[in-house]
Amino acid sequence: MLDALVIAPHPDDAELGMGGTIALMLAQGLRVGVLDLTDGEPTPLGSPSLRAEETAAATAVLALSWRENLGLPNRRLRATLAARAALAGVIRRTRPRWLFAPYGVDAHPDHTAATRLVEAARFWAKLTKCDLPGEPWHPERIYSYFSVHLKLIRQPAFVVDISSTWEIKNRCLSCYASQFPPTATKPTTLDRVKTAAAWWGSMIGTAYGEPFASREPVALRGFTDLF
Length: 227
Prior knowledge:
The protein is α/β, with parallel strands linked by helices. The chain has a single domain, classed as Rossmann fold. It has 6 helices and 7 strands, in the order βαβαβαβαββααβ. The chain has helices at about 15-25, 50-60, 80-95, 110-125, 165-175, 190-205; strands at about 5-10, 30-35, 65-70, 100, 140-145, 160, 210-215. It has a 7-stranded mixed β-sheet with strand order 3-2-1-4-5-7-6, sandwiched between helices. α1 links the parallel β1 and β2. It is globular, with a radius of gyration of 17 Å.
């Protein structure tokens, strides 16, 4: 059903980490879905209803046709057996070729828990003779996007050119006004996101880029896949 399933601890993490890549994949005809694990609440300026409205607005900007929320607890996200089964069930239902998960080194416990949960659910999703719904399915790869709370110097496996979709990413992030409110202090969070995207773009000779990590080898059919 899906080519790519992007799994996010909270609404806005998928957009922060790979909003430009999501828009690019959709423009290239790939089937992309986003699964938010929690509603992201409580936060200082948010509420469950407001976050749902913001998420719906960002989803419309990205033109996503598939987005769901797994309903796990924010701030207390854990890779429990119950959470693993719930996520494995979604993987078996959507049957993605690739999974995208948060980078596993982070200060935010929800983000590191999400990474462990995705890895475990990927394995469980292929099991036979079990009580999981649907047919067994094993995504080919897990790729990690960077939406981290640490000032890390990251070494990605590859960087995606998002020059053509940067404005879409910027607009969908602007939908999350409760999380990225305008402030008198500069640079704002969105300023820093733009600066980071421009820096990653400069590393590959483009205007904007998004980095990704991979614990498994990335396959190429030949050097014509590179630019």
